[in-house]
Structures are given as C-alpha cells and as structure tokens.
UniProtKB/TrEMBL annotation:
InterPro entries: Cyt_P450 (IPR001128), Cyt_P450_sf (IPR036396), Cytochrome_P450_monoxygenase (IPR050121). This is Cytochrome P450. GO terms for molecular function: heme binding; iron ion binding; monooxygenase activity; oxidoreductase activity, acting on paired donors, with incorporation or reduction of molecular oxygen. Pfam families: p450 (PF00067). It comes from the Eukaryota. Keywords: Iron, Metal-binding. PANTHER family: CYTOCHROME P450 (PTHR24305), P450, PUTATIVE (EUROFUNG)-RELATED (PTHR24305:SF232). Belongs to the cytochrome P450 family. Its cofactor is heme.
C-alpha cells in the first residue's frame, strides 16, 4: 500500500510539473495575445486531432470568421488570412524557410533520409534539383505531350460511352469522380512512361494505387502537424509504421521500375520519346533526386470543375453555349481553348473555390520577425468595413502560413457569395 501511495504521489507531482510547464510557456509566449482555440495555445495535439478527423478546413474557416485575419493554431503556429502578407511570407528570396512539416515528405531509403524538391528546407538544394527538370514542366513541353492527352481523352469518352450509355448499359449510374481519377492517373502514367497504367481500360483502382495515394497524402497532412512523430512512425529505421495502410504502394513502384528497366536495357526506346521518363534519364547525371507531379492535383481540379458546373445549371448552360459556338474539333486542341473566356473563368473559379490543398503552407518567421495587424473582429466581413486593430510582433521561429480555403472565400475580395461559381464567372478574367 505504501508503494502504491508513493507511486500515486510521483505521478501526481509529474502531472503538476507538466501542467506548470505548459502554464509558464503560455504566460511567457509572445503569441499569447493572438486569439484561437484554448487547447491550441498549449499543444499541437489539438490541430493533429483536427486534421485526423478531416475537419480542419471548416474549422480554420470558422476560426477566421470568428477571430479575424490572425488565428493561433498551435503554441508557435499562426494562420494568416491577410492578403497583403502573402507576398511577404512566400517571397521568392526564400527568407521565410519551410517548417519541419515538410520533413514528413522526405523518403527513407536503406536507413538514410532523402530530401526532394517539395520536402527540402534548403533553397540551394531546391534550386539545384529543379534546374535539370524545370523545362519538363513548362508550356512548351506540355504542348509536346498534347497528343498523349488527346489519346487519353478518346479512351476516357469511349469507356464511359460503352460502360454507361450503350446497349444494356444505357442509363447505368456512373460515379464520375472515380472515372476522373482513373483518367488523371492514366494520363500521368502516359506522359511519364508513354504507357497508361490501365485504370480506364479496367474501370477500377488498379492495385489499390488510388487508395494508397490517398493514405499517403493523409499521413503527410496529419503527422505533419507534429513532425516529430514521423521519426517514430514512417521514418522509424527499425519498424516503419503509419496511421494508414500503405500495403499497395508496391504496385505503383513495380510499374515504375518495369518502365525504367525497359528504357535502361534498351536505350533505343528513348529515341523520339517526349515523355517525362526520357527527360529524367537525360537529367539523372546532373541531379539523381527528382520528383514526379502527382495525378491527384489534376483529378481534384477536374472534379471541382464538374461539381460546381453541375451544381450551377446557369453556368453550365453558358459554358456549353460558348463551347458549341467555338465549333471545336474532338479532342479540342489547347490553342482553340485558351482564348475561350468563360471556360477559363470557370476553371479559375473551380480552382479558387476548391483549392487542391486544405491546410496552411507553413513557413518560419526569419530573424527580423514579422509584424501583423491583430483585429478586434474580422477585417474581411461581408461589407468589408474596417475594425480597430493592434500590431503584434511575431518573433523569429514562429510558424506562419496561409490556408487557400480561407483566403479564397473572403467576402471582402470575392463578394457576398464567395462560393458562388456563376457570380464570379459572369465576369471572366482576361
């Protein structure tokens, strides 16, 4: 009994000591005047759980509606919805370096951590790694891949017609979101290896690759809120683990390796190829650590465009009229589409209303610090009226960032109905 009593005392003292440390950190914090959720002021566990439950987008939007442009999301993390600070935080000089959030995207290979263009916190590494492959992502190279896109569009339409519109399948329900993902991933494979992965032909998630990609992105999003966890989970050199199942990643890796070995064993296959693999092989001597663009970005954009057009019949009708009046061939070439104002407005609006990323792009405040205006209420209310504010100085090391979902729905910029596709698309941007 005496031992149990002593153990309880030790545990109690430990808890008191821990709470005291949190209290002292809170009282001494230069961010204590910045409003936000109560528990977020003491620990990053709050935002970890918010991301895990996939409620972070709506949570952050509501927090900014309640507190204004500046909201505290963690002991040292601040979300900013002031458009005037975007160029400062994400300046091209790289003075606001990436936070440890990005380290979760590093790769573990044979016990060694490998950075990539997205994950690196080094400006020099980023510039070095991008240089040999930058041309692959330019418009000129994209135009060389247009014939591949045309072929994939034909397959996409043919599969939809045969599976959902013809014969006994006429009227069959189609989950267009799934098929947009199939198209996007097949196009990624086509432009990278000159060979589709086979999603559209099979009409299914080949090898569970789409589910695996979703799990990977969720892992980055959730564990990135407490990056130190990654050392015990995904980057654990002895027993790598995850919050989500990654078992099917071997299918994607296997397909990539097969295409790579084909080219290495038969260099003649590279001749005349304009795909990304040919470009990567040309650049491998200069920089072996390269990255691929993900198909999830393309899929999200197309899904958002379909969703908001179907949700807004008037916008869909106007876009349909513009496309028909243009007398386009099939598939329509980019040169014929780039000057259609309503189409481009709809694409821009879909990207604005439904951004691909739903969390803040974290950056670390440099040695000079950052001064922000702390409003007594939201500066971006429906009528755009200004409110009283005080200036708060964020010290070096503070993590700051902007969430596109928050900034893209500010009434002061996008009107009283910021999520209305038709209202914005009526005035196409030039």
């Amino acid at each position: 009994m005496a031992f149990v009593a002593l153990l309880l005392k030790v545990i109690g003292l430990g808890i008191i000591l821990l709470l005291s440390q949190y209290a002292l950190a809170y009282l001494r914090s230069p961010l204590r005047k910045i409003p936000g959720p109560f528990f977020a002021k003491f620990s990053n566990i709050w935002r970890f759980l918010d991301h895990y439950s996939q409620t972070h987008i709506e949570t952050q939007k509501k927090l900014h509606e309640k507190y204004g442009d500046i909201v505290r999301l963690g002991p040292t993390t601040v979300s900013i919805a002031d458009p005037s600070l975007i160029k400062t935080i994400y300046n091209t000089r790289g003075t606001f370096v990436k936070s440890d959030y990005y380290s979760v995207n590093d790769a573990l290979s044979n016990g060694h951590i490998l950075q990539n263009i997205f994950s690196t916190r080094s400006n020099d590494f980023n510039a070095r790694a991008k240089k040999p492959v930058q041309k692959l992502y330019g418009l000129q190279n994209a135009m060389q891949l247009e014939s591949l896109m045309d072929d994939d569009v034909r397959v996409f339409c043919s599969e939809l017609e045969s599976r959902f519109m013809q014969g006994d399948n006429k009227g069959k329900t189609c989950d267009i979101a799934d098929w947009i993902s199939y198209f996007a991933w097949d196009f990624l494979g086509h432009m990278t290896w000159s060979k589709r992965i086979g999603f559209m032909e099979k009409g299914e998630d080949v090898g569970g690759m789409l589910k695996t990609a979703e799990n990977v992105m969720r892992y980055f999003s959730v564990v990135g809120q407490i990056p130190a966890l990654d050392k015990w989970l995904g980057k654990n050199p002895y027993l790598p683990a995850s919050l989500y199942k990654f078992d099917d990643f071997s299918v994607a890796a296997g397909f990539s390796v097969e295409r790579f070995m084909e080219r290495m064993q038969n260099p003649e296959l590279n001749k005349g190829k304009k795909d990304f693999l040919a470009g990567f092989l040309e650049a491998k001597e200069e920089s072996p650590e390269l990255i691929l663009g993900g198909a999830d970005t393309l899929a999200v954009v197309i899904k958002a465009l379909f969703y908001y057009l179907l949700k807004t019949p008037s916008a869909k009708a106007k876009l349909t009229a513009e496309l028909r009046a243009a007398n386009l061939s099939f598939p329509a070439p980019y040169k014929s589409l780039e000057h259609l104002p309503y189409l481009n407005a709809c694409v821009s609006e879909a990207l604005r209303i439904h951004p691909v990323v739903g969390h803040i792009f974290e950056r670390v405040v440099p040695s000079a610090g950052l001064s922000v205006s702390l409003s007594s209420s939201n500066n971006h209310n429906n009528n755009g009226a200004s409110t009283a504010s005080t200036t708060v100085h964020l010290p070096p090391g503070t993590i700051v960032g902007v969430n596109p979902w928050v900034i893209h729905s500010l009434p002061s910029i996008f009107g009283a109905s910021p999520l209305n596709l038709h209202a914005r698309a009526l005035a196409p941007r030039r």
